[in-house]
Each structure stands twice: as structure tokens, then as C-alpha cells.
Amino acid sequence: MKATETLHERGQSLWLDNITRSMLDQGTIQRYIDSYSVTGLTSNPSIFDKAIGSGDYDDAIRARAGRGRPAEELFFELAIEDLRRAADLFLGIHERTDGVDGWVSLEVSPLLAYDTARTVAAAKDLHARTGRSNLFIKIPGTPEGLPAITEAIAAGVPVNVTLLFSADHYLAAADAYLNGVERRVAGGLDPAVGSVASVFMSRWDVAVAKQVRADLADKLALAVGLDIYRAYRRLMSSDRFQRLENEGARMQRLLWASTSTKDPAAPDTLYVHGLAAPFTVNTMPDDTLEAFFEHGEVGDPLPADGGDADALLARFTQAGVDLGEVAARLQRDGAKSFVTAWNELLDRIKAQTSAVT
């Protein structure tokens, strides 16, 4: 049995962090579903930027460019077409798991990050336009994004909360989600609105690589993961969630993101092998998925009580790492990079439009 199948059998969902039109046309995503136990998919502006730059969408852009659409509108048309097709590929999984799995994700414009009302309006619009029940709208879990998450969930829009780094970030996002669910319960609405909380892992190790000793290299992200998983399992068994579950609510699933290894000296499946845990999702790019399929190993699952998380994190604190400051900086820098990636994507679409017309 391949490692991907073993991990799936042990209760973790494997999602693909990529999508291109050629992957859909050539059956690559279907192959990952059939042979690699892939049960969902995530996307982001950088992924589409790279795909559009490859010429993969030239014909589609050419067919639409003459209509005078703004770059942002053209992007969402292209992305929605692809994500509808991907959502349909995962629909059987979504239905078989009663909405637990089989999701795809589309990101709302990060330019709306400081405007809750416009973010929620955009989330509703994109979800409605896509017309697929198994589509998440991605909203950053920054302090400014938390009210939008609550409002979107309360409105029945499934949300992938992105840009989380620490247990505190995760708990704030989970609270925003549960606030939305509680509003639905109070209003007599169906509380089972899908959501995942995406925590970014590899950036932790990159952030402190030049600050810590060699014996601590590539160990911080996994220690943070233990801490986050402990917070997740505690919330899952809390009185607050148990009351909501009795009303028909679902737990917001924990998702490990940014799982490609950045250190050439580290194992290429470090953030898959090291983050094996039931009740979670691991989304990974093609190269990491292929590597884990070919030579990955499935070790012991993360302990629900956090294991030696506190001792591991204490070693970094003793080495001079301010964990709270690093988490805040990573989230701030991530939010800025989202805007940069978005602007680069729109510039790419404008350039490709000019090139093909």
C-alpha cells in the first residue's frame, strides 16, 4: 500500500495545492484522485499566475479579451470555469462523506482585506456564481478578516480560513467560525456550514533558519504543529462545540498548508510525514505529493495532547526566538505577499491579453 493511501486510511485527507487547465484537460487531477487518494484541492493567485504565464489560458483569454473585461473580472471567469470542473471531479467524494471532504477553494480579492462588508459581499457573489456546493471561499484569518469569516459563515458561505500560523491564530479563526455557526443556530438555520482552518507550516523554519543552532533546524514548524493540533483537539471536545454538534454543526477541520520543504538538506516529505494526524487535511503541491507517493513513510500520528510541544517550543524560546513576534510577522508578511501576488496576477492577465490580441 502506498503511503498516500495509508495516510488516507488513517483519517487524514490529502489535497492537491495546484490547479491548471491542462491538468484538468489531460486528466492529471483525476489520476491523483484515482491513484493518489487525493480528495480535495486548493488554489491561490500565485498558482493561477504561473499557469496563465505558461500560455495555458491564451485561447480562453483571446476569446474574452475583446469584450473589454477588467483583468480581475477576467481572472474570476477563468478561475470559476476551472474550479467548477474540479469541484465536479470531487463531487462524488463530497457526497459520499456528507460534505466532510471533496472541497475546492477560490480566494476572494485580498484588496478587500480591510473591508468586511465588501469581503462578505464578494464571498457570497463568488460562491453563487460558481454554483457548486463543495466550493470554499478563502478569507485570510487576520484580525481584519475575522469579522468577515463570522459574517460569511452566518450567511451560509463555506470558508477556507487562510494565513494562520500559531495556536492563537487558529483559535481566533475557530472562534470566528463558531460565532457564525451560533448565529445560524439562533436563527433556526442549518448550522452545518463547511470550513477549514489553514495553518502555514514551512515558513516557520525559514523564518528562524539563520537564528537557531543546527540541531534546531527544521524543527520549529513541527513543534508549532503539535501545539496547534492540541488546541484543535481540545476545542473539538469542548462544551461549546459539543452543544453546537448536538444542533447539527460540524467541526471546522484543521488544514496543514505550505507543506513543501524549503531546506534542500531536509527530507522532501518533512511536512507530510511530520504532520500525520486524523481529523485533519494536508494540502501539498504536485512535487511533494509525488514524492510522498513514491517514497513517503507514515509514522505515528500527532498526539492529541500535544506530546512534547511545550518542551520543543521552550528550546526555541531559550535560543532567543520570540514565538509570538514571529507568528505576527509571518501573518503580516503573508498578507502583504497576498496583495503582491494578486497584483502580479492581474498584471500577468493584462500582459497576456495584449500578447494574444
List keywords for this structure.
8-stranded parallel beta sheet; 16 helices; globular
Nearest-integer average pLDDT: 95
* Principal-axis shape: globular
Residue share in β-strands: 5-15%
SS class:
alpha/beta
How many β-strand runs? 8
Number of helices: 16
> How is the main sheet built?
8 strands, parallel
Low-pLDDT sequence parts: none
Radius of gyration equals 20 Å
Q: What spatial order of strands do you see in the largest sheet? A: 2-1-8-7-6-5-4-3
Oligomer: single chain
Description of the molecule:
The chain is of the alpha/beta class and 357 residues long. Helix content is 55%, strand content 12%. The protein contains 16 helices and eight strands. It has an eight-stranded parallel β-sheet. α8 (146-154) packs parallel to α9 and α11 (220-236) crosses α15.
